[in-house]
Amino acid sequence: MADVFAMSGNTPNYSGMLFNKGNTKTPFSTMIGGRRKYSTSTEFVTGQEYETATGSQPKISEAESLNAPAASVITREQKTNVTQIFQESVGTSYGKMSNMGTLSGINIAGQQANPISEEDFQVAAKMAKIGQDIEYTFLNGKYHKSTNDNDANQSRGLLEAITTNALDADGKKLSFMLVCEALKCIKEANGDITNIVLGLDSTSRMQLNADAVANGLTIVESGRDVNGIAVDKVLTPLGTVYLRDLIYLPAGTVTLFDPFIMGPVEQLVPGKGNFFLEELAKTGAGTKKQIFGQIGLDHGPEWYSAKITNLSAAMPTDGDMARKVYSVSKADSDEPTSLGTLTVASAAGNVTGKTKITITEPLTEGNSYKYKVGEAETTVKLGQSVRTWNAWNGTDEIEAESGKVITIVECDKAYNAVKAGHNTVTSKTE
Length: 430
Known about the structure:
By secondary structure, this protein is an alpha+beta fold. The protein has helices at residues 27-32, 62-65, 94-98, 118-140, 158-161, 176-188, 202-214; strands spanning 37-38, 43-49, 77-82, 84-93, 166-168, 197-200, 219-226, 229-236, 239-245, 254-257, 263-266, 276-279, 286-298, 306-309, 340-341, 344-348, 354-359, 368-374, 390-392, 398-399, 405-411, 417-424. The model is unreliable at 8-21 (pLDDT under 50).
């Protein structure tokens, strides 16, 4: 695209910038801006993931204690993100620089032409554009790591980073209980829920407010500031959740996040810094300058956040705000009332020390398997979270010692147990 310069004929001077067209707010970027980091490379670490241990009672005899148990390794996976380039250019003609007295707007009380410097105005406007681009990227960015100089790095945004604590609202309106369910996912993944902010749009906020009215709840305005951003709050049984409207959220999507574990990561240019203004080569009667910067999002461990998608886009009605009384019998509910049974079989695998597990019952669509190996059957209750158990794809052989007991759980998308079964392990010996 050809360069466009600010000239006297195409850029009017208004007396006072009384109104600003467009949104210059960047609430998400501002909230996390207090934890700014710097990187000397394009790729940076956002955290590491591994399966955390759960408590159990060991059964070790004195004779067994004379020999140390077999060594095992907890596998870690390091997670990373990348910075990406944000760049804008500003061109101003000499004629425009010298023609700052032309009034093309309303002159109020003899005010002087504004802006005094066209270049300053253009730079400020381009920086506001970059700020909006960063805000959008930090929420919606799709990750891509460059493989060559002609391939652009793209930073992963918060919504793409959240893969486990993801709830499908199935077209329902945002409610107090949906927020509690998302908060529960974070808590059961061992995430800290002390400073959780619920980012939402105006429609979702109205839906939540209607649900609060219907259930006698209170949303308190301006409960606190997060890096200068005022947030409302709502009290849940699991703790306080702060509310903040965010721009650029996809329709029907809200997100819960901890702004104190996140931060922008800047990659500085030696001797210049970041988002600096520099003059480019001259080609005529004017100046051309560029704004250049590199930045990415450190979203932290993804289980510290959650998202709810596929929410209704409908505004609440008066009926939604009426107090509700529910009377539901077990027979009226589609939810299971007891833990289902899995028929588990164990046979020697093809690799020494591994067993081949088969399940008679078909896996329900959308569900997955988790397992645990121990001295005895692991007790499982309906709805129990098995998020920290070992994952199994239903086909791979499992490393387990013969004589141990393997417990297999079928769980839903939120890792809540719906079926379980167990059997004694038979593994291949040498």
